[in-house]
């Protein structure tokens, strides 16, 4: 019946002069199930992926669109199944998606359409972030600048969370993106199985209110708004994992003993948030420490968050950004290899023991020709030793998923 309906749909599209291709990601939209994820067929889904925040930007120019294709090809070779990317570019001079509040460049939106449609071809899902905490690609600072131009009193960038106008602009952006009908596939984003989840904001901070209240109120409002439009897809906040006022006894684990106005426990308990996120950057957070000390920090940081997600939050946790910089003092390639093994082994161990560790997204996978985009954390296919580690993790995660899915189906029989 489904094939017949789809055939009718395609025939109507042909008659109207528009060819529409339905997204075909095996298993459909991913759902949360206990401390993990499953597809619509009940098969276990584990996250093994990377970041490529620049997909829309590169797809917006014919000369750089090739990098999108190359990224997906390399990700598929590495058996990666999720890529995290930006669904925003606010007020930028070059390839802005939102050129002014509520004003969108259709050609850039079509570039995002291309990034989504190509991901489906490679059976890769996307985490789509909706705004930045930082001024790169606009973010909160751009929203605040727009508001000041209209005479709004905005003492600082944290006003983004409380000002009526900026909150309405953000909601409008959410509505615009989630209701976007892909010009290539004809599938509305909120219905597209290519999208793994939405992310409210990349690495939110609110340093003027370290209690976490301001950010919690904003998350509660915006999470409810996202779900009012799209109840199908997963939703996460975009937190780095800093502990806050709700668990002061855990602040020792933060690299600076402050939570940046965020609160890993409290804010991930907000209704409509489907899974927790953590970022891991010892090279940036504790730059003066030795490599051994950074590695020890990573081990504690990862395992503590897995334990808390398992026992306190009862929710899956994904390590959505992690990496080892080749620009750190005394760097040697084996340091990055050791870093990746530490992360991957912790996740695999958690999964094997029924814990909340649900996957990782390395920062960042770059195809050949994008060397100028390397921030020190870039991973290239030419790094055979590291690629071998990623491939090994992908293979054992695939075996884990297959064995768990088979077991689940047997239990249902």
UniProtKB/TrEMBL annotation:
Reaction catalysed by this enzyme: Random hydrolysis of (1->4)-beta-D-mannosidic linkages in mannans, galactomannans and glucomannans
Keyword Secreted applies: yes
Enzyme Commission no: 3.2.1.78
Gene3D superfamilies: Glycosidases
Catalytic class of the enzyme: hydrolase
Keyword field contains Endoplasmic reticulum: no
Signal peptide per UniProt: 1-23
Annotated compartments: Secreted
InterPro entries to which the protein is assigned, alphabetical: GH, Glyco_hydro_5, MAN-like
A Pfam family of this chain: GH5_mannosidase
Example of a GO cellular component annotation carried by this entry: extracellular region
Any one Gene Ontology molecular-function term assigned to this protein's record: mannan endo-1,4-beta-mannosidase activity
Keywords for this protein: Glycosidase, Hydrolase, Secreted, Signal
Domain Glycoside hydrolase family: 31-363
UniProt protein name: mannan endo-1,4-beta-mannosidase
Taxonomic source organism: Riccia fluitans
């Amino acid at each position: 019946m489904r094939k017949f309906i789809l055939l009718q749909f395609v025939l109507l599209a042909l008659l109207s002069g528009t060819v529409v291709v339905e997204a075909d990601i095996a298993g459909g939209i991913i759902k949360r199930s206990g401390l993990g994820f499953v597809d619509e067929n009940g098969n276990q889904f584990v996250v093994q992926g990377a970041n490529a925040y620049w997909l829309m930007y590169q797809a917006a120019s014919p000369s750089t669109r090739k990098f999108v294709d190359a990224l997906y090809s390399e990700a598929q070779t590495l058996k990666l199944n999720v890529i995290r990317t930006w669904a925003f570019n606010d007020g930028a001079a070059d390839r802005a998606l939102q050129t002014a509040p509520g004003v969108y460049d259709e050609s850039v939106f079509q570039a995002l359409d291309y990034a989504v449609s190509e991901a489906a071809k490679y059976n890769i899902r996307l985490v789509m972030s909706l705004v930045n905490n930082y001024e790169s690609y606009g973010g909160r600072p751009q929203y605040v600048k727009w508001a000041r131009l209209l005479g709004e009193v905005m003492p600082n960038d944290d006003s983004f969370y409380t000002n009526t106008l900026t909150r309405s602009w953000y909601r409008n952006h959410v509505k615009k993106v989630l209701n976007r009908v892909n010009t290539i596939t004809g599938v509305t984003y909120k219905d597209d199985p290519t999208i793994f989840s939405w992310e409210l904001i990349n690495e939110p901070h609110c340093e003027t209110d370290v209690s976490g209240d301001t950010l919690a109120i904003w998350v509660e409002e915006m999470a409810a708004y996202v779900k009012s439009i799209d109840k199908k897809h997963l939703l996460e906040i975009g937190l780095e994992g800093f502990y806050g006022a709700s668990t002061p006894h855990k602040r020792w684990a933060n690299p600076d003993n402050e939570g940046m106005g965020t609160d890993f426990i409290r804010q991930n308990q907000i209704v409509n948030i489907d899974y927790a996120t953590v970022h891991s950057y010892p090279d940036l957070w504790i730059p003066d420490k030795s490599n051994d000390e950074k590695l020890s920090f990573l081990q504690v940081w990862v395992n503590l968050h897995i334990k808390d997600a398992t026992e306190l939050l009862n929710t899956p946790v994904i390590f959505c950004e992690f990496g080892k910089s080749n620009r750190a003092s005394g760097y040697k390639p084996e340091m990055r290899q050791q870093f990746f093994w530490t992360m991957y082994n912790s996740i695999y161990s958690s999964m094997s023991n029924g814990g909340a560790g649900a996957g990782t997204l390395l920062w960042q996978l770059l195809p050949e020709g994008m060397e100028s985009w390397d921030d020190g954390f870039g991973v290239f296919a030419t790094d055979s030793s590291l690629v071998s580690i990623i491939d090994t993790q992908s293979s054992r995660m695939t075996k884990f998923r297959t064995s768990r899915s088979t077991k689940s189906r047997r239990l249902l029989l």
